[in-house]
Amino acid sequence: MRKRFMAVFGFLFAAAMCLTAVHNAWALTPEQEIVDKARITAAKLLDDPDFGSLPSNLANAKAIIIIPSLIKGAFFFGGEGGTGVLLAKSPQGTWSYPAFYTLVGASFGLQIGAKAAEVILLIMNDGALKAVLKNQLKLGADASFAMGQIGAGVEGSTTTNVNADILAFASGEGLFAGISLQGAIINAREGYNEAYYGKGATPTTIILEQKNINPAADELRQVLLAH
């Protein structure tokens, strides 16, 4: 009886370990979740008629930063923050694998509550792209910046600054619909890059040198390629 019990227990334990392994294999990492959400955000905004100028500007852009969820919340003092990905376009029109970046900023005003917005930043020239890859970049200080378009539920605007280094497209609504990114800082997330690609991965090795590959990001690249 004891041997039978031990055999049954061993079988159940092995089955539990297999199920755990399968679950872990399919569980999304934080990095992959950001990539998947970035793909959804890109597809949504690029096909949204409220962002009619986004596809044409993307065609001329050198790179794109996609922030799937920019959180803005405060009581009097406000702040924005979110993690997203940067992809650059090759001369042949293909897109690099994504490097992970954060966008953080601060503001002041009578603000109560918290809202999330989806943000796309288009980097329009090589100088701005090199600045982002080299070090952190402050919008409006290290590179000229303009709101390209804001989506439904927000007071709409289209930039007249066609020579801006970076154009921003934001989708948000409600109390925190008015998004101000002036002075926000773009900074690489080194830990996320290494977690997604392996030790030593940096924005330079991912974007410029193209040494790092993760096929799990191919669907995101295909969304951009299709537009």
Account of the 3D structure:
There is one protein chain. The protein has 227 residues and is α+β, with helices and mostly antiparallel strands. It has one domain. It contains seven helices and six strands. Strands 1, 2, 3, 4, 5 and 6 form a six-stranded mixed beta sheet that branches. α2 (30-46) packs parallel to α7. The longest helix is centred in the N-terminal third of the chain and has 25 residues, at 2-26.
Keywords:
227 residues, 6-stranded mixed sheet, globular
List the helices and strands and how they pair.
Blueprint: H1 2-26, H2 30-46, H3 54-60, E1 63-88, E2 99-123, H4 126-134, E3 137-138, E4 145-150, E5 166-171, E6 185-188, H5 190-197, H6 203-208, H7 218-225
Parallel strand pairs: 4-5
Antiparallel strand pairs: 1-2, 2-5, 2-6, 3-6
Helix pairs in contact: 2-7
Poorly predicted runs are 5-26, 152-161
What's the number of domains? 1
Along the chain, the helix and strand elements come as: HHHEEHEEEEHHH
Rg over CA atoms, rounded to whole Å, is 21 Å
Task: Give the rounded overall mean pLDDT.
Answer: 78
State the helicity in percent bands. 25-40%
Tally of DSSP β-strands: 6
Which shape, going by the Cα principal axes? globular
